[in-house]
């Protein structure tokens, strides 16, 4: 049974950093392309990063809104996915989810989420 559990969210001032973790169980993380999404109040799911599986050389992808500030990575030995977020902005405030697929298109599974709040 695929299970995901995010952690590491919290409150931070603009310009600060946070690192989110996503503990995976029920499957081998390295065999999946993995994703981070976020959802701000009153808005839909927004894709914020992707890391390809080992066959895809672990290539990473980001939208322009976070490129250069966010870094997705994984520790296969710990079966854990990470999202390092630097230079945070107030518009980054959202609930962040890790996922096994493009859940914005109804694909894959996501965790319960972790809240990130960035204040000015």
* Sheet with the most strands: spatial strand order: 2-10-9-4-5-6
Poorly predicted tracts of residues = none
* Count of runs of 4 or more consecutive helical residues: 0
> What structural class do you assign from the helix and strand content?
mainly beta
| Helix-strand topology string | EEEEEEEEEE
Mean pLDDT: 95
What is the percentage of strand-forming residues?
Answer: over 45%
What topology emerges from the helices and strands here?
Layout: E1 3-7, E2 10-13, E3 18-25, E4 34-39, E5 45-51, E6 60-61, E7 70-75, E8 80-85, E9 94-99, E10 114-119
Parallel strand pairs: 2-10
Antiparallel strand pairs: 1-3, 3-8, 4-5, 4-9, 5-6, 7-8, 9-10
């Amino acid at each position: 049974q695929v299970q995901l559990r995010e952690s590491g969210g919290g409150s931070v001032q603009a310009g600060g950093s946070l690192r989110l973790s996503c503990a995976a169980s029920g499957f081998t993380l390295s065999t999946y392309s993995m994703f981070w999404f976020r959802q701000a109040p009153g808005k839909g799911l927004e894709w914020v990063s992707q890391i390809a599986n080992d066959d895809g050389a672990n290539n990473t992808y980001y939208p322009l809104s976070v490129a250069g500030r966010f870094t997705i990575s994984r520790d296969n030995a710990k079966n854990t996915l990470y999202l390092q977020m630097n230079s945070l902005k107030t518009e980054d405030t959202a609930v962040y989810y890790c996922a096994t697929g493009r859940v914005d298109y109804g694909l894959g599974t996501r965790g319960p989420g972790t809240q990130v709040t960035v204040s000015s």
